[in-house]
Amino acid sequence: MYTLDIPDHLASSFPLADAGAAPLLGLATAGGAPCEDLTDVPRVAKYLALRGTAQGLRQLGEFRDLEVVWVSGVRPALIEALADVPRLRALNLYQVGRTELGGVSRLPGLEHLLIGWANHLTDVAWLAAFPRLRTLVVEDAPRLDLETLPLLPKLRALQLGGGIWKTLKLPSLAPLERLPGLRFLSLTAIAVGDGSLDVIARLPELETFWAPNNFAIEECARAAAIRPDLAAPVLQPIFAEARLDTAGNPVFPCKACGEAMLMPTGRRTSLLCPSCDSSRIRKHIARWELARAQTILPAT
Ligand SMILES: [Zn+2]
To answer: For tag attachment on the chain, is the N or C end more exposed, with fewer CB atoms within 10 Å?
Structure first.
């Protein structure tokens, strides 16, 4: 079996028609790999994992019940063929290369779109064609121009990131305010030019937030004051508590005393030992509380 995992938090937003309350946790294909030839695949299939180079792509239109498609190695011919799938609701496009994705906009019923390893993806204005889109994941897309993001009032979950090897450099997070219904926002491997987290104040429905630890401490504390209802590592003075591994050993041991170290919130901070660096930790928390208080009670 070849299991195609979908992150838990996203899987829970895939309530497919007959799946009852059970979330979709992944797609598994028999034979150990995604499908290479559509000829013998039963036409009643609801879920399909295939390679972009699979034989018989033109037969995709015969799959009248197909709701979920996962593709590795996206090609223009595949994008063309997908437009004939009448009930497609979830689409995972992995390894996009230089293939233009605008063609998928002929799928007005699409609710969940996941795009991965899309090094050449810049413009996402075509997403405007998906009025029902609820989940959007764009990963490994270091050239993405967020300014092209259209208004998507129904979008509930967004996961956005540059990738393991490259950071997605965004001038600002401001375009995210075009997603007023957003409840889940996860930003990984990003750097924000204006350093502002202000946008979370303009996303009233936001419930879950994750951002990397590369914002200034004052900005994080200010954002925490603006949205005290949001729990996120970046909105707390300590970004990562001291941790032990499964064997009970510190994940990051202090070189002086061996105790597990913690990571304070704020860019350019270093790991601190709760014992050896206790005064630095107290100063860090005092700086955080001051910035938070100045937001709640602005100086007159
Ligand atoms: Zn120590």
So the answer is: C
Residue 60 has a pLDDT of 92
Same domain, 128 and 72: yes
Residue 232: partners with Cβ closer than 8 Å, 6 or more residues away: 208, 209, 210, 211
Residues 162 and 286 in one domain: no
Within a domain: 262: yes
CB within 8 Å of 120: residues ≥ 6 apart = 96, 97, 98, 143
Structural domain total, the chain: 2
Note whether 137 and 277 are same-domain residues. no
Q: Which of residues 275 and 131 earns the better pLDDT score? A: 275
Domain that holds residue 128: 2-212
Q: What's the CA-to-centroid distance between 216 and ligand 1, angstroms?
A: 25
Cα-to-centroid distance, 240 and ligand 1 (Å): 16
Q: What single-letter DSSP state applies at residue 231?
A: B
CA 18 to chain CA centroid, Å, is 26
Cα(67) to ligand 1 centroid in Å equals 54
Q: Which of 212, 247, 278 is the last residue of a domain?
A: 212
Q: What is the rounded average pLDDT of the residues 92-116?
A: 89
> What is the distance in A from the centroid of ligand 1 to the CA of 140?
37
CA of 244 relative to ligand 1 center, distance in Å: 15
